[in-house]
């Protein structure tokens, strides 16, 4: 069993990660971190760069959590990547970060959080940036 | 002064509100395509050719000039912030520029690039004003044999000197010349390469060819390599420069300009060689050599000035002789033909107002670019977050629309697809696009001069070299072709210095190529061989195998740039 967290290098992404680490410590399960990009733009600020990832793994090593960091670039939406990983690693919990969206933005771009909430087959913990 | 009053008339035309608007549109579009890797000014001008036919020729060329200069400005932004050159001429900028940005000096790097480009653009355009009429005076006296010889030289030089593989260059040139042959022979009326299709007898439309090779080919290539790991962009505020930065930048700007303009004006100049030379020069002359490799401002200021000066230089043979030396100039030349304007030495005489308005708009565009680039650099960097499927879908849409609108026949869409597939294959197998497009555009004119020369001499082949200038040019052609062979032989005999000769090869060819073809340009050129000489003497003498032993930095940069090319195939000029 494992805990899946959708991570992006922003305030809400970090909040989700912090909470996921707490949960993983509590239940002694493996933490799977998903940071994906569709990979179709030259620059994607939601894709964590090498320094960020190495700082992340260092922190997880220090806290003694069994972890797996995945950065799939396959042209899929972030929501689909998280859901697929949840299936594959038999997730007991998915942790995601929420941010405030305008109704229009949500209408046009859709909501990754909503898709995960509706389609996941395990409990989903949604965290807001503090 | 005749030139001055013509130029003032040009300013009067270019400063009308409508033309200013077109200059602004051109400048904004140019910067945008310059920032985006894979999309260059040549593709943009090609896509706009069909649209431009409804405009006044003057307005259209003012817009094209803005795009051309804008592409040069915009390329540096991506180089500095992302280490991915937006243009091939910004490859050298990426070396020091990206290091500066990583050291937290992105604002200064962007500022010196933008202001250096402005200074070089202004000086380069002034040199164009001075030299173009002199070249014209010289060129009108040329007969068909000399003109033919100069065109042959230009095609061979671009093919043999630029690019990594001569074989691929000549393959591409051959394809271009073959495409240029399609249609009726203009003397005998015989159908050539039409395969019995009556629609082909008018020849292939240059607009369709340019759009297919640049836009469709590139879009297919990108579609084949769509997924890639996103890069990190270095965040930056408004570009600015301190007093110390100014002090260290102004000399490299001027030296870069002095290197860039003559190389741009050469038949095989291009902007890559002078940017490289400028980098080497600055590294040698710098008072802070220890900073090279850690982000030296001179290494950004010099090459960025050089590439803009080269852009201005390229327009000299384009306007004065009708000889394009890079892809954008070639497509602009195609635009002249679209408007029914005959490019060549008579252009200044027949279309004076248009040419001078174009040159005046270069000054205006240069100034607008400074205004658009300096405060807005962070905004331009945001363009890189655009998902490429949307971008290239738009390009394909415009390409199709444009190709159809030229003649309103569905057959052109077939041609677009076939030639687009050709463009894709060329990128796939590493064939440079520039020789093809030059072959298509210069081929028919080359043939015309050849036929004319032979008609004058009643079919006697010696009629091709009965003018002294033609003979001189043929000797240079022979030198250009034999130079690599001679260098190799020499290196085999004297292994210790051979590598250096090869490194200096294209540059040493330079002045020789220039001499008779564009005599006036030789004056500012005097500096280049001297610089090159220093490079050859001062460089550490390496073993036999080295290609460019003197400087590991730019060499590594080139390799990195090659990797970028391989990565998403941006063959842009």
Automatic annotation (TrEMBL), chain A:
Q: Which domain of life is it from?
A: Bacteria
Question: Which InterPro entries would you find in this protein's record?
Answer: Rossmann-like_a/b/a_fold, UspA
Provide the UspA domain boundaries: 3-128
Cross-referenced PANTHER family: STRESS RESPONSE PROTEIN NHAX, UNIVERSAL STRESS PROTEIN UP12
Q: Which family does it belong to?
A: Belongs to the universal stress protein A family.
Name under which the protein is recorded: Universal stress protein
TrEMBL record, chain B:
Annotated DUF112 domain residues: 20-438
* UniProt keyword list: Membrane, Transmembrane, Transmembrane helix
Q: Which Pfam families match?
A: TctA
Instruction: Classify the source by domain of life.
Output: Bacteria
Q: Where is the composition biased (Basic and acidic residues)?
A: 549-573
**Span list, region Disordered:** 513-573
Q: Where is the composition biased (Low complexity)?
A: 513-531
Q: Where are the transmembrane segments?
A: 20-39, 45-69, 109-136, 142-163, 170-191, 203-224, 354-377, 389-422, 429-446, 469-486
**UniProt-recorded name of the protein:** Tripartite tricarboxylate transporter permease
Which source organism does the UniProt entry give? Answer: Arthrobacter globiformis
């Amino acid at each position: 069993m494992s805990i899946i967290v959708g991570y992006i290098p922003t305030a809400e992404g970090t909040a989700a990660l912090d909470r996921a680490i707490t949960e993983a410590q509590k239940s002694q399960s493996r933490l799977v971190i998903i940071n994906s990009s569709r990979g179709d733009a030259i620059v994607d600020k939601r894709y964590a760069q090498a320094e960020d990832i190495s700082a992340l793994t260092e922190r997880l090593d220090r806290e003694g959590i069994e972890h797996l960091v995945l950065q799939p670039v396959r042209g899929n939406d972030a929501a689909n990547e998280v859901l697929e990983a949840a299936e594959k690693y038999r997730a007991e919990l998915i942790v995601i970060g929420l941010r405030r969206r305008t109704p229009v933005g949500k209408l046009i771009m859709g909501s990754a959080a909503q898709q995960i909430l509706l389609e996941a087959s395990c409990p989903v913990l949604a965290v807001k940036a503090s | 002064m005749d030139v001055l009053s013509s130029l003032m008339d040009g300013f009067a035309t270019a400063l009308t509100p409508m033309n200013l608007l077109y200059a602004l549109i051109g400048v904004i579009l140019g910067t945008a395509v310059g920032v985006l890797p894979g999309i260059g000014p040549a593709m943009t001008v090609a896509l706009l050719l069909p649209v431009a036919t409804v405009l006044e020729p003057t307005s259209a060329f003012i817009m094209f000039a803005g795009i051309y200069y804008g592409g040069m400005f915009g390329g540096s932004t991506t180089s500095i912030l992302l280490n991915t050159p937006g243009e091939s001429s910004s490859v050298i900028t990426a070396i020091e520029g990206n290091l500066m940005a990583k050291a937290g000096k992105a604002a200064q790097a962007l500022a010196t690039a933008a202001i250096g480009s402005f200074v070089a653009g202004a000086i380069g355009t002034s040199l164009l004003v001075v030299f173009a009429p002199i070249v014209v005076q010289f060129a009108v006296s040329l007969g068909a044999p000399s003109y033919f010889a100069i065109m042959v030289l230009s095609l061979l030089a671009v093919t043999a000197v630029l690019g990594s593989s001569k074989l691929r260059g000549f393959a591409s040139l051959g394809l271009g010349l073959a495409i240029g042959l399609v249609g009726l022979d203009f003397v005998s009326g015989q159908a050539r390469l039409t395969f019995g299709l009556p629609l082909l007898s008018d020849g292939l439309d240059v607009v369709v060819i340019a759009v297919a090779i640049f836009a469709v080919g590139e879009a297919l290539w990108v579609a084949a390599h769509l997924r890639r790991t996103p890069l990190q962009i270095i965040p930056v505020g408004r570009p600015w420069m301190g007093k110390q930065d100014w002090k260290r930048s102004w000399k490299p700007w001027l030296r870069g300009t002095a290197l860039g303009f003559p190389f741009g004006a050469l038949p095989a100049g291009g902007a890559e060689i002078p940017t490289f030379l400028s980098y080497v020069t600055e590294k040698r002359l710098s008072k802070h050599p220890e900073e090279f490799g850690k982000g030296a401002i001179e290494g950004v200021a010099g090459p960025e000035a050089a590439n803009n000066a080269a852009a201005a230089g390229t327009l000299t043979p384009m306007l004065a002789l009708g000889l394009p030396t890079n892809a954008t100039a070639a497509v602009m030349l195609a635009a002249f033909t679209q408007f029914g304007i005959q490019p060549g030495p008579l252009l200044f005489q027949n279309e004076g107002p248009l040419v001078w308005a174009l040159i005046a708009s270069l000054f205006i565009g240069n100034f607008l670019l400074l205004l658009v680039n300096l405060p807005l650099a962070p905004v331009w960097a945001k363009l890189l977050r655009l998902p490429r499927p949307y971008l290239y879908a738009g390009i394909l849409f415009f390409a199709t629309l444009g190709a159809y609108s030229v003649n309103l026949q569905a057959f052109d869409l077939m041609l677009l697809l076939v030639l687009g597939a050709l463009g894709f294959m060329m990128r796939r197998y590493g064939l440079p696009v520039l020789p093809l497009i030059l072959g298509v555009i210069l081929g028919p004119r080359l043939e015309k001069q050849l036929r004319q020369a032979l008609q004058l001499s009643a079919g006697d082949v010696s009629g091709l070299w009965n003018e002294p200038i033609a003979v001189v040019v043929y000797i240079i052609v022979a030198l250009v072709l034999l130079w690599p062979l001679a260098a190799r032989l020499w290196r085999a005999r004297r292994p210790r210095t051979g590598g250096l000769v090869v490194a200096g090869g294209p540059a040493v060819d330079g002045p020789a190529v220039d001499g008779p073809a564009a005599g006036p340009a030789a004056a500012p050129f005097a500096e280049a061989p001297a610089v090159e000489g220093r490079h050859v003497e001062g460089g550490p003498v390496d073993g036999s195998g080295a290609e460019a032993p003197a400087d590991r930095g730019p060499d590594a940069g080139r390799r990195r740039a090659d990797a970028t090319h391989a990565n998403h195939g941006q063959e842009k000029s």
